[in-house]
Amino acid sequence: MKVRLYENVFPSQWFSHLNKCLRKYSKQTDRIDGAFWYSFKGSPTNLFEQLIRYLRKIARPGSECIGAEWWVHSYASDWKKNFHFDRDEYAYLNTSKWIHPKFGSIVYVSDSGGPTVILDQRVDPKKGLIPEQAKKGTLIYPKKNQFAIFAGNLRHGVYPAEFQSKNGSNRITFLINWWHRKPINLFPLTKALPAFIAPLPKAIDSMSAKDSKLLRVKPIFFKTMTHS
To answer: For residue 43, what is the DSSP state?
Structure first.
């Protein structure tokens, strides 16, 4: 599996709730930034962990995955994210080992912003990028209630939108890495979330993902390419 893309990943009422919450949350000056850990052994304690538990049915990360790293991005629509690899940053700093999540994934909460670009490159600690120049990649443009999941060792980034959103809407994403081991110095969210980020009904755990639809993703091929 390189890239899978689903539309209508959440039931409409759930996505409407998530969209409303994150748009309001992104405007808060005291919002909680950073990445957090959710162990699959525990029960969800907040909205984001509830949604991860539901997405697990669609992502199908495998029994070896024990938990998820998650965070939220909200940036201007012309925001750019340089190409990079997801990894256990503290393990790399302490041991120089490249430890990737099994899968990376993105829930698009808004339609604003440029595409996520997932390349066919991985990294070898001794040899560097393989292949040295990307030969193909996948572009995923933001679309509300769409969910992308890809191999966790692939190089990826975000191209800026050609024009800023006319209505000033941010590029909002909910990001989840699916891990076979707990990254160093990553902990659950324990700080209380704002009251308006209300948990969904407990029935979420018993709901099926029957309305989500797997889309066909076609790679694009490059002649020569340079990424920064």
So the answer is: P
Written as six digits, the tokens of 139 are 């572009």
DSSP H helical segments within 60-191, as ranges?
89-95
Question: At residue 160, what is the residue type?
Answer: P
> Which residues make Cβ contacts (< 8 Å) with residue 181, sequence separation at least 6?
66, 88, 99
Number of neighbours of residue 210 by Cβ within 10 angstroms: 7
Q: Which two tokens stand for residue 22?
A: 């994150």
| Residue 5: partners with Cβ closer than 8 Å, 6 or more residues away | 140, 146, 147, 148, 214, 215, 217
Cα separation of 143 and 109, whole Å? Answer: 7
Tell me the two tokens of residue 177: 């890495």
pLDDT in tens, 66-115: 999 999 998 888 888 899 999 999 898 888 899 999 999 999 999 999 99
Using CA atoms, how far apart are residues 65 and 98, in angstroms rounded to an integer?
17
For residues 228 and 88, what is the distance between their CA atoms, to the nearest angstrom? 21
Q: What is the CATH number of domain 3-188?
A: 2.60.120.620
The model carries a pTM of 0.88
Report CA 46 to chain centroid distance, whole Å. Answer: 17
Structural domain spans, the chain: 3-188
